[in-house]
Structures are given as C-alpha cells and as structure tokens.
Amino acid sequence: MKLALLASGRLREEYARLAAELYSKRIAKLCPFEVVEVREPRGADPEKTAAALAARLRADDRVVLLAAAGRECTSEDLARKVGEALSAGRGRLVFVLGGPFGAGEAVTARADERLSLGRITLPHELARVVLLEQIYRALAILRGTPYHHG
Hints:
The protein has a single domain (20-92, 106-143), classed as SPOUT methyltransferase, trefoil knot domain (Alpha/beta knot, 3-Layer(aba) Sandwich). Helices cover 45% and strands 23% of the residues. The chain has five helices and five strands. Strands 2-1-4-3-5 form a five-stranded parallel β-sheet. Helix 1 runs parallel beside helix 5 and helix 2 (46-54) crosses helix 4. The longest helix has 20 residues, at 124-143.
C-alpha cells in the first residue's frame, strides 16, 4: 500500500516548503509516498476545490479528510490506523487537506474518515507540515524507532 497526501494549493512560505520536504523525504524512506497538489482555484470556491481534489482520488483509495469537525486522535491512534491500512494492502491511504475554506461536499462525502489536528486554528501551510510530521511519527511508532518518546 502507498501513502499519499492530496492537498489544495502549493506551499508558498519557505519555512513550510522546507519542513514539508524534510518530512516527505523521511516518510518516503519508510513507505511508498507521494504528495499530490491541486491548484487552488481563484475566488476560494470550495466546490471547485472539491472537484479538483475528487478528480485525483481513485476508487480503491482509503480517504482520510482533515477537517475541523473531525475526530481528534493521539499519535499512537494515528499509527494504529496507518498500520491497519498498510496491512490491508489495497489501494492508497490518502490524507486530504482541502483549501482554506474546506474540501467541499464531494470530498467530504467520499471520505472514509474525518480527522482533526485539534481545536486550534492553524494556517493552511502549517497544517500541512503538522500532518506530514504526524504521518512520519506514525510510521516511526510502527517501526519502533526512537523518534517518538510516547
């Protein structure tokens, strides 16, 4: 199974690009991984964003949507979910990070699960970095590496 991050928009801030690149490389060393970015349409139209995101999803993908109203979990919980998905071996486990105004109804309806990074509000670019770090941490937990001190 492959892991993927499907995200709306490109990272513009240098700190976010560097951090995202760092964690993406670390993830790719542990598991097949790809980052797929879709262009954020002008006018911040969540339905156009949803259409662009939905077009990149495959029928056999397991979709985890990042959403403010999603379920919060610990790093260990996330590791368990990632481990179960990797063991299942079908398709991709795709984490979807919509635009600043959400992922739209099409992607929300397609999601197998909704996950929240917490009740705080994060800038969109920082949320991507936090998500990538947590995916890396989940894989580190599964491998038993000393990265995670839980």
